[in-house]
C-alpha cells in the first residue's frame, strides 16, 4: 500500500521574518575598515572566517630581527620609562595580581606598607558584580577600591589557565567567575571599560593552549585580531575614554602564527602588547618569545601574564618582556607554600627541607610526635575518621580549596606538612618581611592545620615580598649586564632542588 505524502505546510511570511531579513542585510553591509582589509562585524560562514584571518601581508614568512633580538636583555631595552598623559610605567616590574583591585587575603593598608607595587592586574570576572555600582556612582575602579596603583583590566584570568576555551566563539569570549560562565561580547566588554575607567585594558582574546590543532589556532588568531580592531575603533570614537589598549599576541604557541600576528599588530595604534603564558608550550618557549618581541616596536612595552614560578619571571625578562604578573603567588599561598629562594645568592634547598611534601605524616611523627591535626576532635573539625585516615596516608592537610593551577617546580617550603610542626625558625633566614620578622614555620603550620584565615594572609605577605626582592635583583643584574648568566645559575638551582 502506497501512502501519499502530505503537502508541506507553507509558513506565511510575517513582519517578523521581514525584519530579520532586513537585519541580516544591514549586518552584512556594516563593516569595520582596517587598512586595505574589511572585517564584517558578524561572521556567518566558517569559510569566510578562515579567508579573512590571513591577508596577503601575513602569508609571507616572517623572520625575527636578529640585531634587536640580541639586545632584548640589555639595559637600554629593559630599564625603561613608558609615559602617557595620565600615567607613567617604569620597567622591569612585577604586577600585583588582585581581585577587584585588592590583593587576595591582604588588607589595603597592610599591602601598601609591605608589598606596595605600581601596577595591579584585575581579572574581568572579579568586577562583573560591581559594574552597575560603578556606573551609578560614576567612579573609576581605582577610586572605588581606593588604590593609587595603575589598573590593568584583563578579560582572561591568568591565574586559572584551564581549558575552557571551547565556549568562545566569534561573537565573544566566556568569562568564568563565582556565578559560573558568562558570555561577554566585544561591545559589552568595551562598555565595561568605559564605566570602570582603568589606566590600561587588554583586548578580548581567544586564548587557547598550544595543544590545539592548526585550524583552532587560526580561529583564535582571527577572533583576537578582530576584537583588537574593534577596541581601536572604540577608542577612536570615544575621545573621553583615556584608557590605553594592550593587544594580545595570538597564535597558540605556533611560531609562524605568532610571528604573523605580531607583525600585523606592530603597525596598530596600541600602547603595548600581551603574551599569555597559557598559550605557550610547557617547556622551551624562550626562543619563541624572543623572536616575537624582536619584531614588535621598541617604543612599546611587552607584558607576560601567567608565569608559573620565579625562574620563569627571570626568563621572561631575559626574553625582552618588561612586565610580568604574580598570579602564581596566590596559588602558592592558598596551598600553604612559602618561597625560600635567596635571589641575591641562589642556592639549592638544604637536604632536610627538600621536597618535604614527599615525607608522609607517619614518617614525620616518628621524629616530631603526633601532628596537631590528630588532636582536633571530629566534633570541632567536622571531619570523619575516614577523611583523617586519608590525610594521614597522603601526608597532606589541604585546608584551602586550591584554584585551577598548572603544576610547576619551585623552591618552596610546603608548610602544610607535619615536618614543620615544631620548627621555630623563620621561613627564610635572610628574609626581612612582615611574616618572617614576627612568626615561625611552626606557627604558620599550626594556623594552616587549624584552618585560620591568618595563614594565607601571612604567606601572601611573605611571597609578595619575596617576588619584590627578586625583581630588584633582576634590575641590578640587567644594569651589570649579567642577566643571562643569572638565569643560567637560577636554572641550575631549580634543577638540583
Task: Work out the strand percent.
Answer: 5-15%
Structural class: alpha/beta
Q: Percent range for helical residues? A: 40-55%
Question: Which strand order do you get reading across the main beta sheet?
Answer: 5-6-7-10-11-12-13-14
pLDDT < 50 stretches: 31-58, 351-381, 391-408
**Total count of strands:** 16
Q: Radius of gyration over alpha carbons?
A: 26 Å
Largest sheet: 8 strands, parallel, barrel
Cα separation of the termini: 82 Å
Written description of the protein model:
The protein has 497 residues and is of the alpha/beta class. The chain is built from 21 helices and 16 strands. It is 41% helix and 14% strand.
Concise synopsis of the structure shown:
This protein is α/β, with parallel strands linked by helices and 497 residues long. It is 41% helix and 14% strand.
Which terms would index this structure?
single chain; 497 residues; alpha/beta; two-stranded antiparallel sheet; 21 helices; 16 strands; 41% helix; globular
Topology:
Layout: H1 15-29, E1 31-34, E2 37-40, H2 46-53, H3 56-59, H4 66-69, H5 75-78, E3 80-83, E4 88-91, E5 93-97, H6 108-114, E6 119-123, H7 131-137, H8 141-145, E7 150-154, E8 172-177, E9 180-185, H9 186-196, E10 200-202, H10 214-237, E11 244-248, H11 255-265, E12 272-276, H12 286-294, E13 302-305, H13 310-318, E14 323-325, H14 327-334, E15 337-339, H15 361-368, H16 378-381, H17 385-394, E16 412-414, H18 434-438, H19 441-449, H20 454-480, H21 483-496
Parallel strand pairs: 5-6, 5-14, 6-7, 7-10, 10-11, 11-12, 12-13, 13-14
Antiparallel strand pairs: 1-2, 3-4, 8-9, 15-16
Helix pairs in contact: 2-10, 10-11, 11-12, 13-21, 14-20, 19-20
